[in-house]
Description:
By secondary structure, the chain is α+β, with helices and mostly antiparallel strands. Helices cover 60% and strands 10% of the residues.
Amino acid sequence: xxxxxxxxxxxxxxxxxxxxxxxxxxxxxxxxxxxxxxxxxxxxxxxxxxxxxxxxxxxxxxxxxxxxxxxxxxxxxxxxxxxxxxxxxxxxxxxxxxxxxxxxxxxxxxxxxxxxxxxxxxxxxxxxxxxxxxxxxxxxxxxxxxxxxxxxxxxxxxxxxxxxxxxxxxxxxxxxxxxxxxxxxxxxxxxxxxxxxxxxxxxxxxxxxxxxxxxxxxxxxxxxxxxxxxxxxxxxxxxxxxxxxxxxxxxxxxxxxxxxxxxxxxxxxxxxxxxxxxxxxxxxxxxxxxxxxxxxxxxxxxxxxxxxxxxxxxxxxxxxxxxxxxxxxxxxxxxxxxxxxxxxxxxxxxxxxxxxxxxxxxxxxxxxxxxxxxxxxxxxxxxxxxxxxxxxxxxxxxxxxxxxxxxxxxxxxxxx
Length: 416
């Protein structure tokens, strides 16, 4: 879901389509984003800025991956308990149409519809593909609630962007302590977050044991009131007294102590307003500490300038990677030259090798003939041996006859 001050990154749809196909069409893609502030939105950064923002532990990876369903559900529960461990903004999400049709109806609910959709999506057990590279640009312009929220003009922002016909009685019904929490004074931002949380709890069947979340909600609201009364002085004493009448005695005492603490912090001048505000968020563990990577965008007036800058950066990165593949070029050329020389050397040796092979063929033919002849001779050995045996027998017979004849001659001679 995009607003008119947001933008898709260069070639995002092509890349998302390819990844969705590679990962067998997951139910949802959850992508990292750039944040682009238009000029004039933030007092402390009037010229605006472009940053790549890793605002969830899920983005601390190098390659896309399928999110474990148990971990996804835990992130949803964190959100229901007013902890930001993932970014809830809808610009991070790309949903499959069938997943939306089978989810809560309507899919977007509450004054913070993207919060509600994030909670129900993460808790669904569906297949979520995390893409830890910035692929979308989230814009913060003067025509967005973020502008009014950042400049302490929340009531104006709510009237313009968050006007909702939410039936508080319907939202709180069936949940012990919900109505009291929703009537507690404080920021519209956290109240809208709580409403989204309660509606998601009802859809998910997680309406039991909400007391701890309500106590946390009240503490967050008290800190916000104390900061604006004691540090930024956006709440004067008259308004503070009016708020105090809406609180219980113990809550008024806590608020008074918090206000004194912020007054001391302001007088000490050891922290800027933004740093003090960030300190509250960190102390209450409202947001996961983001990793922010400023981009060197100089001349710009709208998000298309940011888009063009990102596009040029991606082209430059692609060129650099290509150069890295070719460098060092001299060594690459040297390697190719060596391979070419080796090829030529092999070609020069082809003729001698052919002669050697021819000589070997002739030698093999000669050996083959000798082997055949040897086998032929071996075949005649038995018959020769048989012939010799016959000859031996014949000689023995002749010898016996000769001896017999010789014996008769001896006897004849003796009688004479």
